[in-house]
What does this fold into?
Amino acid sequence: MINTPLFQFKDVHAGYGDVKILNGVNIEVPSGSIVTIVGPNGAGKSTILKAIYQIAKVTEGEISLMGKNGKVDIRNIKPHKLVDVGIGYVPQIENIFSALTIEENLDVGFIHGQGRNLEIRKTEMFERYPDLAPRRKDRAGSLSGGQRQMLALARALMSYPELLLLDEPSAGLAPALVDQLFEELVSINKSGVTILMVEQNARRALEISTYGYVLDMGRNRHEGEGVKLASDPEIVGIYFGKK
Amino acid sequence: MADFIQLLFNGLVTGSILAIAAVGVSLVYGVLKLVNFAAGDFLTLGAFVTVFLSVDQHVPFVLAILVAMATIAGISVILEFTIWRGLRKSKAGTLSLFLVATGVSLIVRQLILIIFGVGSRKFDIDQVKTFEFLGAQIAQAQLVVLVFASATILGLGLLIAKSPIGKGMRAFSDNPSLASVAGVNVDRIILATWLISGLLTGLAGVFQGMVQGSFESTMGWMLLLPIFAAVVLGTIGDAYGALLGGFVLGLVMELSTWSIFFGGVPSSYKPVVAFSTLALVLLVKPEGLLGYKARSI
It folds into this structure.
């Protein structure tokens, strides 16, 4: 795809116990891009993210990040240390701390603030997500679905990630909010954050993506520019259903 | 009026001790989902280590208290590495953990008897000196306990609310998997939880010993049920809830003995009052005083 990707999955085999889900998956995420992984249920999309966080066991292959200080082998890094190497993650469900206030959610996201100023970063996040600002002292669990997703993004952005991993970011959102979310992802990307997402809403996600991968049965099936994949009649017919 | 002031003061003292002990129990439950039934006996151990050092070995009282607190914290950390971590790795359930904690409790109680002997002990402090305040007699030991317990609670509240470790503990308690991916160092949080819990438990033991005057190896065991009642009343796993629960129960237990209430409840029935209060509150608010249900989406 390109010579030196920011993030790379190279011939990765992974699964849970004896059950193998990924069978030699290859993914490259160039710096500054939005890369989306799509595919039918059971294709292994979420397992890719779980392999990064060592929830799924990687048996073969290489997962690496080209950090500021050179190549980092992700397999040797404890999950909580991934924030330190520049990876932020927004899980699909339970992606906020419901019992904490909105401001405290941001504080927790800043735990590894790389020596920068917490208050400045919080101000930036409240400017980016103005709906959250007046409710900063409210419990996060009182937010609506769309607001929660914004808080989840803000929490992940607090640590200045180079790479943002998103697991089904549009899941459970109303159609109007889905458009808003994808616009926000483009905006985050334009601010310099590379994005790798796994998404069920394949067509919509690919339309904003620099590059896309179609996975099936734990293997790479197709790949290409996001817009082209989204409009490829063969892929649309097999994997995305009719428009 | 004097009776009311007296009971109010007694309630605040009892409540502050319950609150300190309850926070330790609540933090451990919140972070580790462990019902630490051994807390009562560690509380007793804190008092016995202090009396051994200060009375038998003539170590200054404050230094003895600090060493006792550190001892309980140290033992708690050792148990984390030798017992609890292994049990978590083997996916032991809540009931298994509870039973092991009960076993630890019995072992600690017997060790207290073996090491420090049978019989009651007391600190070398003035137990009879009192001050008069609005007609009530306030014992010096009670006043000292209330002042230092209040300072501890204030410091603890700030630690939990403002410090990165406090926020990390609350985040982990709320959503462990998200806390981990958000960068919260789980191992550090667990160690901090045991350390803080151990320090608080040891201190609560000393305070209870000071207020009681003399104490035996069953002191903490007798206090265990009100401590757990405070934890549940305030909302299990919520540190602030435990503080509130402790004070509410302390005040309710003491004020229930006021003669204005149909002659007052006999002192020996205080635990009954505590659990009746707990039952009534849970009927109205099953999630506890500070309980919170997230909005469903």
